[in-house]
Amino acid sequence: MSRKILVLFAHPALQRSRVHKALVAAVHDLEGVTFNDLYELYPDFMVDVDREQTLLREHDLMVLQHPFYWYSSPALMKEWMDLVLEHGFAYGRHGTALVGKTMMVAISAGGRETAYREEGLNHYTIAELLRPVEQTARLCGMSWLPPFVVHGTHLLDDHATAREAEDYRRVLIALRDEAVDPAALTATTASSSERIRSLAST
Ligand SMILES: Cc1cc2nc3c(=O)[nH]c(=O)nc-3n(C[C@H](O)[C@H](O)[C@H](O)COP(=O)(O)O)c2cc1C
Questions:
Q1: pTM
Q2: Residues contacting residue 149 through CB under 8 Å, at least 6 positions apart
Q3: CB of 88 within 8 A of CB of 116?
Q4: Measured in angstroms, how far is the CA atom of residue 16 from the centroid of ligand 1?
Q5: Ligand 1 in contact with 20 (CB < 6 A)?
Q6: Superfamily of domain covering 5-201
Q7: Average pLDDT estimate for 77-93
Q8: Distance CA 72, CA 120 (A)
Q9: What is the dihedral of CA 53, 57, 60, 61, to 10 degrees?
Q10: Which has more confidence, 34 or 189?
């Protein structure tokens, strides 16, 4: 058994990116992974809803990959959600296309993990800040995985960035190969990003 993974990638300035350039290079050609670069496809924000819904139907696990911008996503990721997750497709009485599928977020954040605590600069954990996306997934009948988070991006040298990219690749391989039961990941007391990282060593 293996899961078909769809990576929905949103970065408005990939040419200036360090972290996502490395993450993308590590996963874009993985077997069983479809890489969907939203800013490349839709620089004018004219999202092809039929195409995107067909892709969603064809995959089991959706990974929303983007830099964390103002505690959220770049604008096109939100536009994609607003247009693609339609009533009658993703939710509502006849909107069952995503039921039983899984969603995960893969983000990079300038802030360190210690900044994303109640006593830290950002007051809230990443898991708390991602609640609107988590609830979006749940409303659509999807399971929600802990996020893959690359913290402290400004502090990462090339070597550390490459290690993050390798972890990301391993996490996607483990998820693709169903080396893990998603329920087990949500049942432990470790922090959410540690839980998904544990897959990199399976
Ligand atoms: C418009 C904008 C908003 C940002 N907002 C946040 C934020 O809310 N929290 C945070 O930790 N980092 C924030 N950052 C930092 C980015 O997340 C960081 O630069 C990015 O993840 C690095 O990845 P890259 O090298 O692929 O661009 C922001 C950066 C920009 C340009």
A1: 0.95
A2: 106, 107, 108, 109, 113, 126, 193
A3: no
A4: 12
A5: yes
A6: Flavodoxin domain (3.40.50.360)
A7: 98
A8: 18
A9: 0
A10: 34
